[in-house]
Design brief:
mainly alpha
């Protein structure tokens, strides 16, 4: 049983206390989102205005989920019986509600719906975008700025890349030309393109380095200092110095050669190579430097254990000393050569990065475009202006009183700066703070910081906790820290396996935040569980691998061989394990019945080709599998039909799209009717339909399209699609496409709500946004 001190319901209710700022550390499966939603509802019940609350989620999907669950709870409060409402409110606030609170709970749904712009439940990037939209002049931006799509980024990068390559062909002596020459000497053309994309991906971090050290010149000086090198020191100069007779004990080496000549065959061979190298010209010594090193060092550049044979060691110990001394000198030299090479390559990449960023930023500015990093950085610049920030915050719907942050561990240092600027006036006034007027609520899991999404820093999470704790306590405010470790999701066996794994790892102090021993608690006590740990399947043959299928000699491989890769072998193993579980009648203890395919959930780290191979193997064994869980929303037939309809109503002259809509379930025109309408016409299809609207077979269709066109010009995207689906539109689509189309339809409608909270509610703008973003 779970003790009272660890009772998750008590801890959750404590976290939702709207009178105190709270920092909640909660593991996966402990109900983090529920806690945040309860906190939000608690604030609304306490009389806080919806427009003065700001809830920041990590993804748009998370923001949409929070929004849906809040509206669902509020709508239930409006219509449910009094007894059920009192029970729900009692669980939320920890005591029976009074009459005024019950009345307020029933009115909240309408109040939130009537809030201008809706409640602010959005990602931090969406919030920054809406803020910059309202204050473009104060932020120094063009009022018509646009957010870059993947296509825009790819286009600008392509142009930038061509410009850089053209510039180096016109100037063979520039630092950029030398840098690219260095880079292309290491990587091929494909890797060069990937390098450019990677530099753009980490642009924020590299730009911080350039700013911190006053550009590339200052950063280069710091790097040379860290590597203990001088800028004039090159690999060529170091090698020339290394092979000169004054840089090593050439007399001792010649004496060692004479001794080695008296030894075994291996000693004699070493002596032959040594005397040939020492008697050669400097240019030959440089060319054959690797041969000289091979006498003293292994391929991994470590000192050989057998510099000479045992007899030489015993009879001539001074010879072994000479050889060891030279070996140590060569190790030092090679390490220094590697340092120079590494530093040269690093500076070459940084030189390319500086030129790339300069050109990339210039083109973005010329097109009035911003990427996601720009949204954060420009918002920081706006909110950190002492004379402007208070006015901006005041104009932001009269200010923000409460900020709630979900998945706080994934917030990077720049995003925390935005939040700090928003809360800058929260806790500076003791009188206001003591009256519990403003709070901040943060929920996250420090253990998930290992993923470092969007550049999140493990140290920053802890620093921000200390910052807000000190700020609030100094202002005599109320502050609580809560740790919730009771999982509602997993069985005890799984949680125990996680604890044993993590607690057995030796953490670096810079990475591990918590010094306590990790211990998850299972809410589902007594539930059976089993964790199987399989050996790693690698490219070499292992005890889990199968012998590869050899193709016939001199015969081209025209068949795809599934088991020639560890990925394929793992897919086979998992599929066979599931087959045994199902066909052998293995019992699912929690249900006291045989295991069936629907009881099994397969989680993968990435949606890679492995997923396809696993599904293929499962189907080959006749195991029912639902397929891959992620879908591209804009590629779903039901969504494509609705988007096509919207495009036609905005651009009726598009005959092909209009024909698609007429044939879709929304209209349901037959092939013969469409041919009858389109054949031998002298004007566009839309005009033809208008002319023939008097005919019985086209009257209803024209009336419906005319009505929809009027709504498209008058309504927001959400209201328009709801009206299209309100009569028989949804019924027609689902009847034709099947019940499985309902999920993407619901997601699409939710997406229109998410869009309208950030962008102008125009159907044309919505379609443009939908084309730019890859919606999953």
């Amino acid at each position: 049983m779970i003790s009272k001190l660890n009772d998750p319901e008590i801890l959750q209710r404590k976290a939702t206390n709207n009178k105190k700022s709270a920092w909640v550390t909660a593991s996966a499966g402990t109900g983090k989102t529920k806690i945040l939603i309860d906190r939000l509802l608690s604030l609304l019940l306490a009389g806080n205005l919806p427009e003065r609350l700001l809830c920041l989620a990590f993804t748009r999907a998370a923001a949409a989920e929070i929004t849906n669950r809040v509206f669902e709870r509020l709508s239930n409060w409006t219509t449910c019986e009094n007894k059920r409402l009192i029970t729900d409110l009692t669980l939320l606030i920890g005591h029976p509600p009074n009459k005024n609170m019950i009345i307020r709970a029933r009115r909240l749904f309408a109040q939130v719906l009537d809030t201008p712009g809706g409640m602010k439940i959005e990602t931090i990037h969406a919030f920054c975008q809406s803020l910059l939209r309202r204050f473009p002049l104060e932020a120094g931006l063009a009022s018509h700025f646009q957010i870059m799509s993947d296509y825009d980024t790819s286009e600008i990068l392509s142009i930038t890349r061509e410009e850089i390559l053209n510039s180096i062909s016109n100037d063979n002596c520039s630092s950029l030309t030398k840098a690219i020459s260095t880079i292309i000497g290491i990587i091929n053309e494909t890797d060069f393109l990937e390098l450019i994309n990677e530099l753009i991906r980490v642009r924020r971090r590299l730009s911080q380095l350039f700013n911190r050290y006053n550009g590339l010149t200052g950063l280069t000086k710091v790097l040379y200092k860290d590597f203990n090198l001088k800028q004039e020191e090159t690999a060529e100069l170091l090698l020339q110095k290394t092979i000169t007779e004054t840089s090593f004990d050439i007399c001792g080496c010649r004496n060692a050669v004479n001794v080695l000549m008296t030894g075994s065959k291996s000693d004699h061979n070493k002596a032959t190579v040594m005397i040939a190298w020492m008697n050669s010209e400097p240019s030959i010594r440089i060319k054959d430097f690797s041969k000289w090193c091979s006498i003293f060092l292994t391929k991994k550049n470590t000192i050989r254990s057998n510099l000479c044979t045992k007899n030489i060691k015993i009879q001539f110990p001074e010879t072994l000393l000479i050889l060891e001394t030279e070996a140590k000198r060569l190790v030092y030299t090679i390490n220094r050569l590697n340092s120079i090479k590494l530093l040269t390559n690093t500076i070459a990449v940084l030189t390319l990065a500086e030129a790339l960023f300069t050109s990339y930023d210039h083109k973005k500015k010329a097109r009035a475009m911003l990427d996601y990093d720009d949204l954060i950085l420009n918002t920081i610049a706006l909110l950190e202006q002492p004379n402007i920030t208070p006015w901006v915050l005041y104009k932001l719907d009269g200010g923000i009183d409460h900020i709630l942050i979900d998945e706080a561990q994934d917030i990077n240092p720049e995003q925390w700066r935005v939040i700090k600027a928003l809360t800058g006036e929260f806790f500076v006034d003791e009188d206001r703070c003591s009256k519990d007027e403003r709070t901040i609520f943060v929920v996250g899991d420090d253990k998930q910081l290992i993923y470092s999404f969007q550049g999140a820093d493990p140290r920053e999470f802890e620093l921000m906790r200390q910052y807000y704790k000190n700020q609030i306590l100094t202002a005599k405010g109320k502050w609580i820290e809560i740790e919730i470790s009771t999982s509602f999701r997993s069985a005890p066996a799984i949680l125990k396996a996680v604890d044993l794994t993590i607690n057995s790892i030796s953490y670096d102090k810079e990475i591990r935040i918590s010094d306590y021993k990790l211990e998850h608690l299972a809410f589902r006590q007594g539930v059976a569980g089993l964790v199987e740990v399989w050996p790693i399947i690698c490219s070499s043959e292992s005890r889990l691998s199968e012998p590869s299928i050899e193709s016939e000699p001199w015969h081209p491989n025209i068949k795809h061989i599934n088991n020639d890769h560890p990925r394929s072998r793992l897919a086979k193993l998992i599929a066979r394990r599931i087959e045994i579980m199902i066909n052998s009648g293995e019992i699912l203890i929690s249900r006291k019945r045989a295991i069936c395919p629907s009881d099994i959930l397969i989680l993968v780290r990435h949606r890679s080709i492995f997923v396809e191979e696993l599904v293929r193997e499962l189907k080959a064994l006749n195991i029912a599998v639902s397929g891959i869980d992620r879908m591209i929303l804009t590629e779903q037939p039901i969504v494509m039909d609705l988007v096509a309809l919207a495009n036609v109503l905005l651009l009726p002259n598009d005959d092909l799209t209009l024909a698609t809509v007429l044939k879709s379930p929304l209209i349901g025109l037959s092939e013969d009717d469409l041919f009858n309408l389109a054949h031998n016409r002298t004007v566009g299809l839309w005009e033809t339909l208008k002319i023939r609207a008097e005919e019985p077979s086209f009257t209803t269709i024209w009336q419906k399209l005319s009505e929809w066109q009027h709504m498209a010009n008058q309504m927001s995207p959400h209201d328009f699609f709801i009206r299209v689906l309100s009569n028989d539109g949804k019924k027609r689509l689902l009847a034709y496409l099947g019940a499985e189309a309902e999920d993407p339809l619901d997601e699409f409608i939710t997406l229109t709500l998410v869009y309208e909270r950030t962008y102008p509610p125009s159907l044309q703008n919505f379609l443009h946004w939908l084309e730019q973003d890859s919606i999953e």
